[in-house]
């Protein structure tokens, strides 16, 4: 199939059959609806259709037309449902991509990958996902406390589910080849994961905590709490005042939030991070 990738959509098509199979094999047994964002030339779509009914979102009208011709019979039986739209224009709410529980599998465009993963983490109908992103993005989501990559993205992901960096994918596996290495990671959400309201409160705390990653956590938190309250929080949780943001675990960030709510602590202002 001859098709010229469009730069405006960040299209790099995964063609290597080995990595396509590895992605599919990473999907857990699920009875939930499987969804794909970005069908590309249909190589991953074809592998998914061998074992699942599929809903596929695609923003490129030309690619939708190609796949519609290729899989006309599957579209008729609704084994495949193809939706032409920009997923970022869909209403950001519970059931963002589907009103019922779903599991997402996708080779995400690099330029919107972080935003999409965050939306998936917030969406209570999403039970988990296997996605490919730029390696550096995958490492941030999958980092452990103490790692230099550990950041707000790591804490949010760990708060919601079990996350695992699975494997790297070289540029040579794509057409056209990107200028970066990619990586695939998986999130399986916990049954009792925090609800959207708690995640949103956590995100505000984390934006402040990691606003200057090399500075001490206490210094960063001074943008959100009075000095006395920071001292109380650190004393109550037994935190070293010299800790940097990446040295504080996900559990401890939740405990800071819980202490604030339990003790009626007042933020000095609703912190707005730099644009």
Automatic annotation (TrEMBL):
<feature type="binding site">
    <location>
        <position position="86"/>
    </location>
    <ligand>
        <name>S-adenosyl-L-methionine</name>
    </ligand>
</feature>
<dbReference type="Pfam" id="PF00398">
    <property type="entry name" value="RrnaAD"/>
</dbReference>
<protein>
    <recommendedName>
        <fullName>Ribosomal RNA small subunit methyltransferase A</fullName>
        <ecNumber>2.1.1.182</ecNumber>
    </recommendedName>
</protein>
<keyword id="KW-0963">Cytoplasm</keyword>
<feature type="binding site">
    <location>
        <position position="14"/>
    </location>
    <ligand>
        <name>S-adenosyl-L-methionine</name>
    </ligand>
</feature>
<keyword id="KW-0949">S-adenosyl-L-methionine</keyword>
<keyword id="KW-0694">RNA-binding</keyword>
<feature type="binding site">
    <location>
        <position position="58"/>
    </location>
    <ligand>
        <name>S-adenosyl-L-methionine</name>
    </ligand>
</feature>
<dbReference type="InterPro" id="IPR029063">
    <property type="entry name" value="SAM-dependent_MTases_sf"/>
</dbReference>
<keyword id="KW-0808">Transferase</keyword>
<dbReference type="InterPro" id="IPR011530">
    <property type="entry name" value="rRNA_adenine_dimethylase"/>
</dbReference>
<feature type="binding site">
    <location>
        <position position="38"/>
    </location>
    <ligand>
        <name>S-adenosyl-L-methionine</name>
    </ligand>
</feature>
<feature type="domain" description="Ribosomal RNA adenine methylase transferase N-terminal">
    <location>
        <begin position="19"/>
        <end position="191"/>
    </location>
</feature>
<keyword id="KW-0698">rRNA processing</keyword>
<comment type="similarity">
    <text>Belongs to the class I-like SAM-binding methyltransferase superfamily. rRNA adenine N(6)-methyltransferase family. RsmA subfamily.</text>
</comment>
<feature type="binding site">
    <location>
        <position position="107"/>
    </location>
    <ligand>
        <name>S-adenosyl-L-methionine</name>
    </ligand>
</feature>
<dbReference type="InterPro" id="IPR023165">
    <property type="entry name" value="rRNA_Ade_diMease-like_C"/>
</dbReference>
<keyword id="KW-0489">Methyltransferase</keyword>
<dbReference type="GO" id="GO:0003723">
    <property type="term" value="F:RNA binding"/>
</dbReference>
<dbReference type="InterPro" id="IPR001737">
    <property type="entry name" value="KsgA/Erm"/>
</dbReference>
<dbReference type="GO" id="GO:0052908">
    <property type="term" value="F:16S rRNA (adenine(1518)-N(6)/adenine(1519)-N(6))-dimethyltransferase activity"/>
</dbReference>
<dbReference type="InterPro" id="IPR020598">
    <property type="entry name" value="rRNA_Ade_methylase_Trfase_N"/>
</dbReference>
<feature type="binding site">
    <location>
        <position position="12"/>
    </location>
    <ligand>
        <name>S-adenosyl-L-methionine</name>
    </ligand>
</feature>
<dbReference type="GO" id="GO:0005829">
    <property type="term" value="C:cytosol"/>
</dbReference>
<comment type="function">
    <text>Specifically dimethylates two adjacent adenosines (A1518 and A1519) in the loop of a conserved hairpin near the 3'-end of 16S rRNA in the 30S particle. May play a critical role in biogenesis of 30S subunits.</text>
</comment>
């Amino acid at each position: 199939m001859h098709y010229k990738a469009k730069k405006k959509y960040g299209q790099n098509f995964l063609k290597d059959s080995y990595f396509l199979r590895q992605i599919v094999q990473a999907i857990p047994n699920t009875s939930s609806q499987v969804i794909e964002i970005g069908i590309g030339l249909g190589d991953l779509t074809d592998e998914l259709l061998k074992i699942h009914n599929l809903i596929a979102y695609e923003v490129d009208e030309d690619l939708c037309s190609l796949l519609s011709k290729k899989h006309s019979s599957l579209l008729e039986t609704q084994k495949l449902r193809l939706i032409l739209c920009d997923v970022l224009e869909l209403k950001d709410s519970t059931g963002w991509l589907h009103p019922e529980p779903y599991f997402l599998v996708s080779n995400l465009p690099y330029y919107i990958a972080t935003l999409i993963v965050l939306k998936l983490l917030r969406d209570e109908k999403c039970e988990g996902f296997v996605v490919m992103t730029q390696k550096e993005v995958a490492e941030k989501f999958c980092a452990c406390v103490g790692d230099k990559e550990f950041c707000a993205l790591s804490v949010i992901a760990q708060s919601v589910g079990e996350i695992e960096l699975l494997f790297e994918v070289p540029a040579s596996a794509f057409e056209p080849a990107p200028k970066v290495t990619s990586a695939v990671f998986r999130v399986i959400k916990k049954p009792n994961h925090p609800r959207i309201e708690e995640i949103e409160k956590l995100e505000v705390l984390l934006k402040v905590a990691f606003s200057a990653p090399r500075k001490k956590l206490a210094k960063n938190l001074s943008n959100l709490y009075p000095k006395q309250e920071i001292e109380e929080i650190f004393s109550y949780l037994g935190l070293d005042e010299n800790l940097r943001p990446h040295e504080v675990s996900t559990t401890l960030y939740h405990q800071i939030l819980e202490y604030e709510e339990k003790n009626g602590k007042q933020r000095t202002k609703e912190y707005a991070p730099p644009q």
